[in-house]
Amino acid sequence: MCSQLNVFILEDDLIQQQYLKKLLLEQKSKNNWKDIVILETARPNDIIEAVKSKPNNNIYFLDIEIHNNFSSGFELAQEIREYDPFGWIVFVTTHSEFLPITFKYKLTALDFIDKSLPDQEFENRISECVEMAHKNQRRNLSEDLFIFENQQSSFQIPFYEILFFETTELTHKIRLVTKSKYSEFYSTLNEIENQDGRLFKCHKSYVVNLLNIQKVDRVKRIIYFENNEHCLVSRSKVKILLKKMTELQQKLE
Asked: Which PANTHER family does the record cross-reference, listed alphabetically (predicted)?
């Protein structure tokens, strides 16, 4: 299992690129993080080639505009998601007005940092992002993981983070809803359910993590999780769902 956190920087302004790298190196030294590796580049393809061999434990600091292309960062983020569905993406840009466009590209970002922020605030935001990614990476090494691999996708995520999986409008493309983010990858719900006994296909469009269910509305047939997340449960699956939840709880006691 990989114990290295890979930090990728996409920035075509050499001064800004080196400034960001300097901040990250200072934080690495300050915290004595020997497991962090930094790659900086002005070429999106350099990152894609690196990610193909390092699909886990990554954080990306992406400038949106590269070589006067105002969508380079978004396009790269979309491509990154094909190889690394659960990497942390941070957009660093002078174009804060582009924030709403992240929804158009269906991207979930850890942060959207404006380069024009005061130096201290900018540095703090960068540091907070790396600290979160590093904390999550260390947790991955010691806690219960959901490890998934097929011909199209490969990733690992702490099992306690998983709320549910759902189908998308694209055939065989699945969306994973966790406590902190949304990610998409190629698979089927049946394939996912077979990975772990704590996962249950409660509906033709959903597989849930039984451990994270907070409430089941039997009348409306809705399953509730934290963060106001919810999904449907089929009429024929309600009793089975409740039984499995009880059995699992008894095993844990």
From this structure: STAGE 0 SPORULATION PROTEIN A HOMOLOG, TRANSCRIPTIONAL REGULATOR-RELATED
135 and 190 co-located in one domain: no
In tens, the pLDDT along 99-108 reads 666 556 566 7
Report d(CA 29, CA 196) in Å as an integer.
39
Residue 73: band (very low, low, confident or very high) from pLDDT cuts 50, 70, 90: confident
Residues 169 and 215 in one domain: yes
Encode pLDDT of 222-244 as tens digits. Answer: 999 998 999 999 999 999 999 99
Phi/psi at 136 (5° precision): -65, -40
pLDDT attached to residue 2: 45
Instruction: Please identify, among 140, 175, 191, the residue that sits at the C-terminal boundary of a domain.
Output: 140
Q: For residues 62 and 59, give the distance between their C-alpha atoms in angstroms, rounded to a whole number.
A: 10
Could you give the 3-state DSSP secondary structure of residue 219?
coil
Question: Which region, left, alpha or beta, applies to residue 83 given φ > 0 means left and ψ of -120 to 50 means alpha?
Answer: alpha
Domain boundary among 105, 122, 140: 140
pTM of whole model > 0.70?
Answer: no
- Residue 164: closest CA among 153, 173, 150, 175: 175
Pairwise CA distance, residues 39 & 47, whole Å: 8
Instruction: Name 20's Cβ contacts closer than 8 Å, sequence gap at least 6.
Output: 9, 11, 40, 61, 92, 126
> Residues for the chain: how many in total?
253
CA–CA separation, 116 vs 127, rounded Å? 16
Diameter of the chain measured on Cα atoms? 61
Q: Residue 162 sits in which domain range?
A: 145-250
